[in-house]
Amino acid sequence: MSPRHSALDILLTLTYKGTRAVIIVVEDVDPEIETIYRNEIRDTLGTGIPTRVVRVKLPLDEYKKNEIHYIFDEVVEEILEKKIKEKKKISKKVTKKKKVTKSK
Q: Residue 18: left (phi > 0), alpha (psi -120 to 50), or beta?
């Protein structure tokens, strides 16, 4: 089994319904494997999942550490924005139901 298949197997094992975001870590640029990962994420988890690709080779320098930190912050911010939007949608639905109930 090639390392690519092993990595994909690990990815599939770790993905589950309810995942809010995915960060794909690769050693080298490989559009083919990135496409496979992104398609699997979309097929397994659906669309709208924030997905980022980070290219990492050891040893990590300060620039790469900062890049990883920035990407992580960006993904967390996107997750929180989505949660806020979801809560607003839910609260609007609840408010509309209460108004309909009161008017009867």
A: left
Count the domains in the chain. Answer: 1
Please name every residue paired with 53 in a beta bridge, in sequence order, or none if there are none. 24
Predicted TM-score of the model (pTM): 0.62
- pLDDT tens for each residue of 25-59: 888 888 888 888 888 888 878 788 888 888 888 88
Residue carrying structure tokens 């050891």: 58
Domain of 82, in residue numbers: 3-103
CA trace torsion 6, 12, 15, 16 (10° rounding):
-150
Taking a C-beta distance cutoff of 8 angstroms, is the pair 75, 50 a contact? yes
